[in-house]
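Quick one, tokens below. Sequence please?
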């Protein structure tokens, strides 16, 4: 696991990268939540997602959007953050040309960025959404993009958040032909505040991506 700097549209992007020992290992990029709400690549949830992919044998990268901590520039708009995400995806793919699989995982606002990036990147083979922000309900960007992924949510999140997750599952299947498996972590809130809750989220994510990656090898 090493700190790296990637040249972005607004300057240098600070990232942490783990290179798997297997040359053709699958890839993953982890997207943190809203930086205006103090989310960043080293927060607890982002780090747990990163470790889940790392421990499942992936080459994986997490990074700070422009204007966050050591990444240069001002905090960006959605379109500007999407440019940074595209830059980071390009970087990890260029460093791992033997790999033919890439996953995306995001927390809260980062979960929305995962879906938008997947619509633009047909090579994305799997994804995970961790407690997606229920205040965002713009689905206009969705188009048919058959895939499957995981939605992780705390069982102690609000009733509105849980109802929204159900709605999101239906929308993704109807508009984008995406099947979404949902796992609710017992007793967890949206921040996975207790260590046991964070560990369970990590375990559930690692188990899912390991299973899906093995199943894809059989196709």
């Amino acid at each position: 696991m090493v700190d790296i700097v990637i040249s972005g549209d607004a300057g240098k992007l600070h990232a942490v990268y783990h290179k798997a020992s297997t040359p053709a290992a699958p890839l993953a990029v982890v997207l943190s939540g809203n930086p205006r709400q103090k989310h960043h690549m080293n927060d607890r949830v982002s780090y747990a997602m990163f470790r889940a992919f790392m421990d499942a044998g992936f080459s994986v990268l997490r990074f700070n959007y422009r204007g966050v901590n050591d990444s240069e520039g001002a905090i960006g708009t959605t379109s500007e953050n999407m440019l940074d995400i595209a830059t980071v995806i390009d970087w990890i793919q260029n460093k791992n040309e033997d790999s033919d699989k890439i996953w995306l995982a995001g927390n809260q606002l980062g979960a929305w960025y995962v879906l938008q990036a997947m619509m633009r990147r047909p090579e994305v083979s799997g994804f995970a959404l961790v407690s997606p922000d229920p205040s965002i309900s713009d689905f206009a960007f969705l188009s048919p993009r058959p895939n499957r992924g995981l939605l992780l949510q705390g069982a102690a999140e609000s009733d509105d958040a849980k109802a929204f997750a159900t709605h999101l599952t239906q929308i993704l299947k109807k508009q984008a032909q995406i099947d979404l498996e949902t796992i609710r972590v017992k007793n967890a809130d949206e921040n996975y505040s207790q260590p046991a809750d964070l560990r369970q989220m990590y375990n559930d994510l690692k188990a899912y991506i390991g299973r899906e990656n093995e199943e894809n090898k059989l196709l």
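The CA atoms of residues 124 and 192 lie 27 Å apart. The chain has a mean pLDDT of 92.
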